Amino acid sequence: xxxxxxxxxxxxxxxxxxxxxxxxxxxxxxxxxxxxxxxxxxxxxxxxxxxxxxxxxxxxxxxxxxxxxxxxxxxxxxxxxxxxxxxxxxxxxxxxxxxxxxxxxxxxxxxxxxxxxxxxxxxxxxxxxxxxxxxxxxxxxxxxxxxxxxxxxxxxxxxxxxxxxxxxxxxxxxxxxxxxxxxxxxxxxxxxxxxxx
Length: 197
Description:
Blueprint: H1 11-68, H2 71-115, H3 117-150, H4 156-182
Helix pairs in contact: 1-2, 1-3
């Protein structure tokens, strides 16, 4: 059993598909880049907030140790505060860099999508050409389907009936002519002459 063959892809269909796929993938890639950057920025903000909270607690404990006169605890909390200060500085630097990158990324995405509108116009133009072609073919098919009915010849039985009616008198005359030729002529009987003396 033969399977029906898939219709061939025309250059217009290929152009429409490529342009549509390019726009779809590009838009998806931009959305994913923005989402990933925003998630990373939010993660850095949470880390910075936790570090600030730990730093505040370390400073509070150092102050308590100073008031209590505990030198060992003071050294421990000072080392902890130094470590948290360095971590907070690193997080703030990364946060500032990532925030600048996010702003630039949003600008690039907006400009790129504006430029990509030309690709969208190409896809729309190809789709319009394909639609126009399909409508033209449908109109041609409809016109070819109606033309035989418009110029249909008369029914055969009408012509044969007309021919039989036209041939009937001729056949009657033809059949009547031999009868008229072979029929005896009717006239008055001739008188016989008297014999001469």
